[in-house]
Amino acid sequence: MSGSTIVADGLRKRYGDLWAVDGVSFTVGEGEFFGILGPNGAGKTTTLEIVEGLRRPDEGTVLLLGESPWPRNPKLLPRIGVQLQASSFFERLTAREQLETFASLYGVSRGTAADMLELVGLADKANTRENKLSGGQRQRLSIACALIHDPDIVFLDEPTAALDPQARRNLWDVLRAIRERGKTIVYTTHHLDEAEVLCDRVAIMDRGRILAMDPPATLVRGLDAPTHVMVERGLLTVAQATELPGVDEARDDGVSLTLSTRRPAVVLSTLAERGALDGLQVRGATLEDVFLELTGREYRA
Amino acid sequence: MTAFRSLSTAMFKGFFRERTALFFAFLMPLMFLVIFGLIFGNSSGNKTKIGVVGDGPVVTALSQSGALDVQRYDSFDAALQKVRGGDLPAALAVRGNEIELRYAASDTVAAGTVQGVVGAVVDKANLAATGRPPLIRLDSGQVEDSSLSAIQYLTPGILSWGLATSAIFGAALTLVNWRKKQVLRRIRLAPVGTGTVISSRLLVTVGVSVLQAVLFVAVAMTPVFGLKLAGQWWLALPLLVLGSLSFFSIGVLVGSFAKTEEAATGITNVIVLPMAFLSGTFFPLQNAPGWLQAVSQVLPLRHLNDGMVDVLVRGKGIEALALPSAVLIGFTLVVGFAASRVFSWEDS
Ligand SMILES: Nc1ncnc2c1ncn2[C@@H]1O[C@H](COP(=O)(O)OP(=O)(O)O)[C@@H](O)[C@H]1O
Ligand SMILES: [Mg+2]
Which residue spans traverse the membrane (chain A) (predicted)? Predict the structure, then answer.
């Protein structure tokens, strides 16, 4: 198993009549940033918790660094760092105290707490109690707690859920910084756009199964989906636009004029010649289009 | 820092930073001390009253005896009116060497007391009038330390109850809250054993109990309450620790199967209040039926209570610890074992 830090094979888990995880297999290499994507209820958390060793699969096996995480494997615990979906903090402790407590649970020097606060950008909140932190700050603290003992593998369950766009972007920087430290990261999200930006490789999950697994760019390119070119409305009529070379379809949604094309270069140069580039936006296919293609459903988190 | 020390520290901080927990642990028992002190402390209110008309050596002796609450009336008729109406248990009129005593037979205890006291005072006056020394002398006195008052018995009871309440609530709520907020699962992912987690919580319980006891006894010993400790009061410390252990085991059991804080609070109340009454915390058990007293023998609060009265107040020695300690340890083992069977790190 050269280079495979995580090997999950044929995982299945049932709750009552529902197969929450229904035959999931994947491998993650050392230093890879691996994303598990999908709408709520897809089975992301259950999959992650089986891999972490928190839940026992009904079928299938997991190897982390060559060892089985179930039953609770104390040899493995210092090498993995976990952020659970709900922020789990000690009541009424400050950010620094949380980190110091977790540090000593792993037998790590308490001084590490300051480094971690710095890494996740919470140095100025060191003495703030857990319940006085904002949603984004809690997520960052929770990630810091997962990293305190310098683990090889980091599991993050929806770290960017319920954050405003600015907080999400701040968190992306944190995630990239962790990656620079050479950690293997497995993270789940229901924000497909975010996974596209961050992940080396993603698995798209729906109803307990993995539908596709590849680098985001490969998935999108494989779609052969049209590019959308948007300009201000009023520059051209829909009829004029449809006549342009390379344009497959034109639509006016009341705000902008959207042209679908498979030859964006031709369309863009024609628009430029006519001086009709005001408010230009070009959007290629995204993972959401991939999801639509795979499931026949619009993506809804 | 070891995991044990840092977990204990985290829990101590969590405890002392919450006002409600502090109130229940430290102020509530003191409130009960004040309330019960007011109810039982004012014993003069319990004296039997007697209406008196006229004067003389007998009336003087009655007033000085302190056994009855002597109230003066101008006319015997007025006093008799009160006796018939049930406002006075008895009335007495002095006419020279004739003394007339009338009482309400409906209140047998008061009637008996009045007849006894007045009879004794009259006999003594007759004896004094003969000028002869008494043939038989009666020397009577109570067996307890003469300082023994209601506070001596109230303090250990209320203290034991306070320890039980906060130990059970504390352990149960911590477990439920930590399970709900996934702190238990998170700890489970760190290389620390179950023993470390449980024993650090136990240390917090015992520590809080000792602080509660120190504060409570210190307040009870102020002149306002006037508690006096027996010489070997420190024998109460091992009892305190064993008592906390058994209450902790109840708390862990409750926290193991309760899913929400509300459920934990409800279940704990259902356990603590009946246990307090059955253990004679607020009212003595002497008059309870035999089977009820037998039931109370399995309750840890009962034995903590008895043991504390013995060593804190009655001045008994180390031998008084044997039975309470044995029961408390046995109880902890049985309930602790049950808790370990139903305990879970996470919901479902
Ligand atoms: N403990 C549980 N008991 C019963 N059903 C569960 C439990 N955990 C998850 N499920 C169900 O399994 C499915 C997958 O859940 P989950 O793994 O949490 O999905 P995701 O993290 O992708 O939102 C959902 O339908 C959820 O309701
Ligand atoms: Mg989830």
Answer: none
Looking at ligand 1, which residue's alpha carbon is closest to its atom 3? A15
Could you give the number of structural domains in chain B?
Answer: 2
Contact B191 A89 (CB under 8 A): no
Residue A37 near ligand 1, beta carbon < 6 Å: no
pLDDT number for residue B147: 44
**pLDDT higher than 90, residue A50:** yes
Chain-chain contact of B182 with A74 (C-beta, under 8 angstroms): no
Query: What stretches of chain B show up as alpha helix (H) in DSSP?
Result: 3-16, 19-22, 28-41, 57-65, 76-85, 108-130, 150-180, 183-188, 194-220, 236-257, 261-278, 290-296, 300-308, 322-342
Nearest to A285 by CA among A272, A277, A294: A294
Indicate the pairing of strand B90-95 with strand B48-53. Answer: parallel
pLDDT, tens digit, for every residue of B112-129? 888 888 888 888 888 888
Average pLDDT of the residues in A44-52: 97
Which atom of ligand 1 lies nearest, measured to the CA of A157? 21
Beta pairing partners, B22:
none
* CATH topology assigned to domain A226-284: Alpha-Beta Plaits (3.30.70)
Final residue of a domain: which of B91, B106, B130?
B130
pTM over 0.90: no
Q: How far is the CA of A148 from the centre of ligand 2 (A)?
A: 23
Range of the domain at B65: 45-130
Nearest CA to ligand 1 atom 5: A15
Q: Which of B17, B182, B192 sits opposite A88 (nearest CB)?
A: B182
pLDDT digits (tens, 9 = 90+) for B235-274: 999 999 999 999 999 999 999 989 999 999 999 999 999 9
